[in-house]
Amino acid sequence: MTELRLKLPQGLTAETWQDAHSSAGVPGLEHRLDEIRALLRCSHLENLYRNPGQSEMRAIVVRLITAPIAAVAWRVFQNSSIYAAKLYAVLGLG
């Protein structure tokens, strides 16, 4: 992205753009627009990489929380008969 930024002239305004590129014609303009579009795309992707959005962060948190909860639930379910027998023994029902 740094290379693309270096290609852009410093202090580019509407007036200097017309003065500097009036003779370039349509191909020159298309080339500049392609460069600007590439810069904007890189900037957008860089922002997504540095600052994950709310939905991405939520998905990460859900994955981090649900895996341990699922493991605990699986263990309890697998040993439910043992836990039920202990509960009945404590309550004096069994």
Please characterize this protein's 3D structure:
- This protein has two domains: 51 residues, no CATH class; 41 residues.
- Helices cover 82% and strands 0% of the residues.
- The protein contains five helices and no strands.
- It is rod-shaped and about 95 Å long.
- It starts with a helix and ends with a helix.
- The model has no long low-confidence stretch (mean pLDDT 78).
List the helices and strands and how they pair.
Elements: H1 2-7, H2 14-21, H3 25-50, H4 54-78, H5 80-91
Number of helices: 5
Rounded to an integer in angstroms, the radius of gyration calculated over CA atoms is 31 Å
Overall domain count: 2
The fraction of residues assigned to DSSP E strands is: under 5%
Structural class: mainly alpha
Keywords:
single chain, 94 residues, mainly alpha, 2 domains, 5 helices, 0% strand
Quick synopsis:
It is built from five helices and no strands. By secondary structure, the chain is mostly helical. The protein starts with a helix and ends with a helix.
